[in-house]
Amino acid sequence: MKFRKILAAGAGAALAFTLAACSGGGAGSSDDSTADATGGTDGAMTEGGTIGVAMPTQTSERWIADGDAVKAGLEAAGYSVDLQFGNDDIPTQSQQIDSMITSGVDALIIAAIDGTALKAQLDQAHDAGIPVISYDRLIRDSEYVDFYVTFDNYKVGVQQATSLLVGLGILDESGAETGEAGPFNVELFAGSLDDNNAHFFWSGAMDTLQPYIDSGALVVPSGEMDINVTNTQQWKQETAQTRMDTLLTTYYVGTDLKVDGVLSPYDGISRGIITALQNQGYSGTVADGFPVVTGQDAEIASVKLIADDVQFATIFKDTRKLADQAVTATLAYLEGGEPEANDTTTYDNGVKVVPSYLLESDIVYADNIQSLLVDSGYWTAEEVEAGQAS
Predict the structure, then answer these.
(1) Which residues pair with 81 in a beta bridge?
(2) Whose CB has fewer CB within 10 Å in the chain, the N or C terminal residue?
(3) pLDDT tens, position by position, 173-192
(4) Residue 284 and residue 309: Cα distance in Å, rounded?
(5) pLDDT tens digits along 74-103
(6) Cα gap 138→81, rounded to integer Å
(7) Which residues, including other chains, have CB under 8 Å from residue 48's CB and lie 6 or more apart?
(8) pLDDT (tens digit per residue) in 109-162
(9) Lowest pLDDT segment from 21-30, 89-98, 244-253
(10) What is the largest CA-CA distance in the chain?
(11) How far is CA 376 from the centre of its chain?
């Protein structure tokens, strides 16, 4: 594909500055020129051209941070940015991307609400010579996804399951078995089926947990072990809370059974699960016997719960690094080259294997909040203490 070239003076030199600028802000940082929930930015056009950035929602602090970081990096490299959030509504995001293409953006960075819903938009982008970077969530069913930047999502699922096993005492933090044989009663939650990542998280987690289920160390009293049953549409906290309420009243209330742990793929889901548990009389901390609940995204409210020993763990995916990589990939195309991939076999979107760049993630426990999140500048100690971004 021949992409539209942008005349960006000094773009190569600006790239180094871009990476430094992206890595400076944490998840609680803000940018006054960021789009509101319905529209684009008020930033002035620069001589570098315009990049369209489509993010799925502002209901998660993680996606706000991603949008801010990508925007800051591209602007540091001399580009204007049209940043828009889709409000978890597929038609809204589709319309936003249509508008970006019509306005003549020079590249698109898209974190899809539904990875299967953007084929028409990618066809249009291809016809207009616009490269498309799929951001964290793989866009499916189109040959015109040019590059994918994400974390190793299968490994994220492995880490989620590992943290559950560590919390239950089956593994120690090094991943070694302790000899603890259980049995422990656990329930399983998956993410939203329209998000391709949810399937990778689930696969990694279940591949890790299945041997312990087979041995009897883990028992799932509800029997709900299929992603088509355990999924949480749009990753919504209230949906997870409702399902956990149902699981408790159906399989635990009025019996001698107690929930020992819950596999959760996202911190918002985790907080819904924790609320349901607390509403049914589970109290105290993990050290006191509160169920082990996992998570993902290191959202500040959940980091506070981990510090307080209520949520056991989360997975930290440093969105600053992901934003850096999205900027790097975009500039590579706009300068007439191609970005470097470190995975060319894993991510088949149903039409093609999309060249990808995978980043590493970390398990956050109470004892490494300081080293992983505070020392890196992602959150401040004051934000962790307060449980909210400043």
Answers:
(1) 51
(2) N
(3) 888 999 999 999 999 999 99
(4) 9
(5) 999 999 999 999 999 999 999 999 999 999
(6) 22
(7) 6, 7, 8, 11, 77, 78, 79, 80
(8) 999 999 899 999 999 999 999 999 999 999 999 999 999 999 999 999 999 999
(9) 21-30
(10) 70
(11) 19
Fold annotation for 153-316+382-386: Rossmann fold (3.40.50)
pTM of the full structure: 0.81
User: Locate tokens 């470097």: which residue?
Assistant: 340
Query: What does DSSP say about strands 261-263 and 80-85: parallel, antiparallel, or unpaired?
Result: unpaired
3-state secondary structure the chain: CCCCCCCCCCHHHHHHHHHHHHCCCCCCCCCCCCCCCCCCCCCCCCCCCEEEEEECCCCCHHHHHHHHHHHHHHHHCCCEEEEEECCCCHHHHHHHHHHHHHHCCCEEEECCCCCCCCHHHHHHHHHCCCCEEEECCCCCCCCCCCEEEEECHHHHHHHHHHHHHHHHCCECCCCCECCCCCCEEEEECCCCCCCHHHHHHHHHHHHHHHHHHHHCCEECCCCCCCHHHHCCHHHCHHHHHHHHHHHHHHHCCCCCCCCCEEECCCHHHHHHHHHHHHHCCCCCCHHHCCCEECCCCCCHHHHHHHHCCCCCCEEECCHHHHHHHHHHHHHHHHCCCCCCCCECCCCECCCCECCEEEECCEEECHHHHHHHHHCCCCCCHHHHHHCCCC
Question: What CATH architecture applies to the domain 11-145+318-359?
Answer: 3-Layer(aba) Sandwich (3.40)
Q: Among 205, 286, 281, 218, which Cα is nearest to 248's?
A: 281
> What residue type is 118 in one-letter code?
L
